[in-house]
Design a protein that fits this description.
8 helices; 5-stranded antiparallel β-sheet; mainly beta; flat; 5-stranded mixed β-sheet
């Protein structure tokens, strides 16, 4: 047990596979190890419990259909990338056309061991050959195979069966053995020993131990044969020890240490040796990478010197690689850093979700870095020709060109033309292609305060507009500035100017015409149509219409866009609101007072004061949808409206019935609190522009990467952005000069994402939503929803034919971790797939926060998954906000801000209504009922009880026949003391329609009272709970506990529960007990750890999942539970399980979530 206890300080690989029976084990084998570089595995075998006799033959077969786990091994083999995901191998091939695709999926290479290393047998012709030999190892397992490839197919040939060693394998090396034609393997084992191994006969030829008797955390084998073999090992004492296994004799099997290298202040996790330079690199727990000059390890003659110490990771460093010109390191901070040999960071790749990159490989010929993360993603990074900020930031030295003031405003007309206006009213043009300034015009009326905006028309030509404090707007063509027109539009300040081109599909679009919108005092917005003649001269300036913005303190527009349908216009204002205006015909000429002669000082936000009516009023208003700091951009793209704001979010909306309907809201990444706009690339990807503190950032949601970072000083200064397929330009004013960040991006010959990420942290819940049939091929696709501690919810599509999962959508509205999911509305539990799938998805978790979305999945042949997913956000609710809205909140105890929703379930309501009831198990010891109104998009607390007085972990419901054609509802809640309480809530649910009819009244929640029955099922917390009806009036209630036990009780409900006495004043209901236990039985040692997943598949079959990484099937009979079969699952720390039926043979699919995701199909 000393070995197992030490595992808590480091990576713990999988242990001995178990093929029969439940398990027992230590904490390290249950996934409690600190280092995430190795995943835990099943523990040692234990005797079966007395109540589970040995079955003569299993009645079912379990097969793994899908595994999404941390990528723990990577290797570049020719133009292939070989990855280890759990025990499976993934092989990617780089085609001539430049696209990486999965050409081979090899399941269970190491059976129940995780793959942690892949080593190729190097030969002079291996780079050009079409066949190579690979050794795959992990934990105590080893297997050798031959990989060959032709033009279309990849073929694998096994050279050995699974070889199991007596100790963990840290490194593997191919060497030549005298007298043998085939090379042999040398293994570095976990207790500082070296084994010469014959993989063909699966036997150890020789084992040599070192005098330094200790555990090692890393190893590096160097040498071509046994005589010159050297082992560099990282010990538990933060040292590197170097020794020669060939120094052993028959009399003495232990070899002394030749050299010791000290310097690290933490455990050494990785070692790499570069022979042609005589350099040794080590990565450590102390967050550093150290490079040592050791010379030739096989002939040591010089002292070891530390030539470089690199600090740049924010957490532990897992691995390091040495190249001729650079050093590459990966760490727990999800960063892949490229260093030069001076210690400078030349590249920093961050694109993986979460907190760790587990594996790294180098494709030297193509200069790629391949990384695999704990998020199950594989990324490809180019090593050369990639955005170095110092080489791209160019000061234009504006003061050396002119003395007519300092730059005041800047805008980019295109990636080639830059316009600058000074505080003296002068306008200049800078041509980025020829690097020259040009004077355009000057006007003293536009000095000090001025607005500058310009647009390039589709038909050619550039038109510009200036605005000042006196209400003047100057409009001119950039080619003919001397023909500018000066208009007096307002009696006060011009707050904003915006050019808005028509949509390409708009019938009224004119290639030489563009709309100019100007905002003045009193919230008046003028729409001017500006046209250029064929020669590029300014032709017409016509007023089309004027609008009036709602009353608020900052009453001017910030952005606008035309909609092609319905002749509508969407406007965003400085208050953070979105408004919908009709285009229509021009209105009658207003008076001067209507135009506005003074500033509005109103700061009211009341609903009645915000509304405006009459000519120019909006037909719809979403007040403050982006907070109070303003909307920064609004865009129309592929039938949807997208808006960004200074609240750090961007939203998708649509127009239905001439009303704006928000669909979803997202925040791109942490720290990006000011979004400036969105950019849609020609290949369909979305880029988010924003400011992170004082830096301008271009963020890619698809690759989770900051593509560009410019230290401009913040978004409050004047700036401009323009891009083309090959160029990105960002210009800004700083310290009296104009600076330009220009990048000419090289198109990569392959995608950046080889394998899509799942979640950045552990998965907390998973739900099967339903099945959809695709249009192309008629394949059945299962729709899954997963939640995680990384605050996101993912919608996945899984097809058994493709053996893969596709990410359809991501929800990231939660402010903290998402603990549980629930489905509402019609959704199939297996059965026939549908043509389209629509349901409600509820997510809840920390900070007592709950979200509700409408999920719609439809076939779409244009997507990779063949499906399209549309999310519509309906409801958001937080308990602390509910408390703040109460009138007499000083009389009510404020809820704990750290309250978590541990489990939620949609209650089957006995009435027919658009609303529904959601039950929640809370960490503050309460059971709460919420009434959700889909139409009003509101949720309110309806009833609650603090009966448990401790954390409530799980909650479920059952319905029973209450007589006269009605159904009653019983709520079951389970707490940390092992008790399960049954509540009849039928009478309380009868009050729900009355609450729905009076949505404006804030009513206090009624008290659920005491449960009608409490069963002490376990001695500690209940982590899993499931209910299934057997026959009329009887139900199987199965539960799993922290102590590894399973409890099943058969309960019956005879009659409906009737509330006793009047309860209109205090809202309390005292039910008469009608729920009683018919029979109960349990298995004390069903699992070796917490039972976190449990489902009653049918009245005679039950399945359980545990942290011990075992999925066990039980037969349920009159005498209790009988063990049927069990198999290892490759998801560590299983947190939740869901099951559904599939296929004509009615097989069951079980999906497990934890540190990964796995689907196992059971047929029997």
């Amino acid at each position: 047990m000393k070995l197992a206890n030490d595992c808590r300080l480091r990576k713990a690989p999988l242990g001995t596979p178990v093929r029969n029976g439940p398990l027992i084990g230590c904490g390290a084998a249950l996934g409690l190890c600190a280092r995430v570089g190795r995943l835990s595995g099943p523990c040692v075998r234990a005797p079966r419990p007395v109540c589970a006799p040995v079955m003569e033959s299993p009645r079912g077969k379990a097969d793994s259909l899908l595994l999404l786990a941390p990528i723990t091994a990577l290797e570049c083999v020719g133009d292939r990338v070989v990855a280890g995901e759990g025990p499976n191998l993934l092989i990617y091939c780089l085609k001539t056309g430049g696209q990486l695709i999965v050409t081979q999926f090899v399941p269970s290479v190491l059976h129940h061991y995780y793959i942690h290393g892949i080593r190729e047998l190097q030969s002079p012709a291996s780079a050009q050959a079409s066949e190579t030999t690979l050794a795959v190892f992990g934990s105590k397992g080893l297997r050798v195979l031959t990989l060959s490839w032709g033009e279309e197919a990849v073929k694998l040939t096994w050279l050995s069966q699974l070889c199991e060693l007596h100790d963990w394998i840290w490194d593997l090396h191919w060497i030549q053995v005298p007298g043998k034609a085939s090379p042999a393997l040398v293994l570095a084992l976990g207790h500082n020993s070296v084994v010469l191994y014959d993989h063909l006969h699966q036997q150890a030829l020789q084992e040599v131990h070192c005098d330094e008797v200790c555990m090692i955390y890393s190893a590096c084998l160097v040498g071509k044969d046994w005589q010159e073999l050297v082992l560099v090992a990282g010990t538990v004492f933060n040292q590197l020890v170097i020794w020669h296994p060939a120094d052993s004799t028959s009399e003495k099997r232990r070899v002394g240490v030749e050299r010791r290298i000290s310097g690290h202040a933490g455990v050494i996790f990785s070692i790499c040796y570069l022979e042609n330079k005589g350099l040794l690199a080590s990565a450590s727990d102390d967050r550093s990478v150290r490079v040592w000059n050791v010379g030739d390890l096989r002939n040591p003659h010089s002292l070891v010197q530390c030539v470089l110490v690199c600090y740049g990771h924010q957490s532990r460093v897992w691995s390091v690689k040495l190249l001729d010109n650079s050093i590459i390191s990966i760490g727990e901070d999800s960063a892949c850093i490229v260093w030069n040999y001076v210690g400078e960071i030349i590249q920093n790749f961050k694109g993986h979700k979460g907190r760790s990159i587990r594996a790294v490989a180098i494709h030297k010929t193509q200069a790629w870095v391949v990384t695999g993360g704990a998020d199950s993603g594989i990324r490809l990074w180019p090593l050369k020709g990639k955005r170095l900020l110092d080489n791209s930031l160019l000061p234009l030295d504006f003061s050396a060109f002119t003395k007519k003031g300092s730059p005041k405003a800047v805008t980019l007309v295109s990636p080639s033309w830059l316009l600058v206006m000074t505080d003296l009213g002068a306008v200049y043009l800078y041509d980025l292609t020829v690097k020259q300034w040009k004077f355009i015009l000057d006007d003293v009326n536009y000095q000090s305060y001025s607005l500058l905006t310009a647009v390039e028309l589709p038909g050619g030509g550039v038109v510009c507009a200036l605005g000042n404090l006196e209400g003047h707007v100057k409009i001119f063509s950039l080619g003919y500035p001397q023909e500018a027109r000066d208009l007096k539009l307002y009696k006060g300040k011009v707050h904003s100017l915006s050019w808005v081109p028509r949509q390409p599909q708009d019938a009224g679009r004119n290639a030489l015409c563009c709309a100019l919108f100007a905002s003045g005092p009193e919230g008046v917005v003028l729409w001017l149509d500006v046209s250029l003649g064929p020669s590029g001269r300014l032709d017409k300036v016509e007023e089309r219409r004027r609008y009036v913005l709602p009353l608020c303190k900052h009453r001017w527009h910030t952005c606008l866009t035309f909609l092609p349908q319905g002749d509508l216009l969407v406007c965003g204002d400085r208050r953070g609101s979105l408004l919908l205006f009709p285009c229509g015909a021009a209105t009658t000429e207003p008076s001067g007072e209507e135009r506005g002669g003074r500033e509005s000082g109103s700061d009211t936000d009341s609903e009645e004061d915000r509304r405006v009516s009459g000519e120019g009023a909006p037909i719809d208003l979403l007040f403050g949808i982006h907070g109070k700091q303003g909307v920064t951009s609004v865009t129309f793209h592929r039938g949807y409206i997208y808006s960004t704001g200074r609240d750090g979010s961007f939203q998708q909306l649509c127009v239905q019935g001439r009303r704006l309907r928000p669909l979803w809201k997202r925040k791109p990444c942490k720290g990006l609190d000011w979004l400036a706009g969105l950019s849609f690339t020609p290949d369909g990807n979305l880029l988010v522009l924003g400011f992170h503190s004082t830096d301008f950032v271009v963020w890619s949601p698809s690759t989770h990467e900051k593509l560009h970072v410019v230290p401009c000083g913040g978004g409050h200064r004047s700036w401009g952005y323009a891009h083309s397929p090959a160029t990105m330009v960002f210009a800004y004013i700083k310290a009296g000069d104009v600076l330009v960040y220009e990048v000419h991006e090289e198109r990569s010959c392959c995608p950046a994402v080889l394998k899509e990420s799942l979640h950045g942290r552990e998965l907390t819940c998973v739900r099967h939503v339903g099945a959809v049939r695709t249009q192309k091929g008629g394949h059945t696709i299962d729709i899954l929803a997963t939640s995680s501690e990384d605050t996101t919810v993912n919608i996945l599509a899984f097809g058994a034919a493709s053996s893969g999962a596709f990410l359809l959508a991501t929800i990231n509205n939660h402010i903290s971790s998402v603990r549980t999911l629930a489905l509402g509305g019609p959704h199939p539990d297996g059965g026939e797939p549908q043509a389209r799938l629509q349901t409600l998805l509820f997510s809840a978790g920390s900070r007592a926060e709950m979200q509700c979305y409408q999920l719609l999945v439809t076939p779409d042949p244009s997507t990779q998954a063949g499906l399209a997913c549309q999310l519509t956000h309906l409801v958001s609710h937080r308990l602390d906000e509910h408390w703040d809205r109460q009138k007499n909140k000083h009389k009510v105890i404020k809820m704990d801000p750290e309250t978590r929703y541990m489990s939620i379930v949609v209650v089957t309501s006995p009435w027919q209504s658009p609303g529904l009831v959601l039950a929640a198990a809370c960490s503050d010891g309460s059971v709460r009922l919420f009434l959700v109104d889909e139409l009003a998009r509101k949720a309110q607390l309806f009833a609650e009880s603090f009966y448990h007085q401790r954390c409530v972990l799980k909650i479920q419901t059952l319905t029973y026949e209450a007589g006269a054609g009605t159904r009653g509802v019983v709520l079951c809640s389970a707490a940390t003391d092992g008790s399960i309480a049954f509540w009849d809530i039928t009478a309380i649910l009868d009050r729900a329609p009355q609450v729905l009819e009076s949505p404006g009244r804030m009513q206090p929640p009624c008290d659920l009272g005491r449960p009608c029955l409490t069963v002490q099922a376990h001695s500690c917390g209940v982590n899993s709970l499931h209910i299934r009806e057997t026959r009329a009036g009887q139900y199987l209630v199965a539960s799993g506990s922290d102590d590894g036990s399973i409890h099943v009780c058969l309960v019956a409900v005879k009659m409906p529960l009737i509330p006793q006495g009047p309860s209109q004043e205090d809202g309390k209901f005292i039910p008469e007990s009608r729920v009683h236990v018919v029979q109960k039985f349990s298995v004390v040692s069903a699992h070796a750890a917490h039972v976190t997943g449990l489902r009653v598949l049918r009245p005679d079959l039950l399945v359980s999942a545990s942290v011990d990484q075992r999925l066990t099937f039980w037969s349920l009979g009159p005498t209790g539970l009988t063990f049927v079969s069990s198999r290892v699952c490759h998801v560590a720390d299983v947190a939740e399980m869901d099951c559904w039926t599939s296929g004509p043979c009615q097989s069951y699919r079980c999906i497990l979530s934890g540190q990964g995701l796995e689907i196992i199909q059971w047929t029997g």
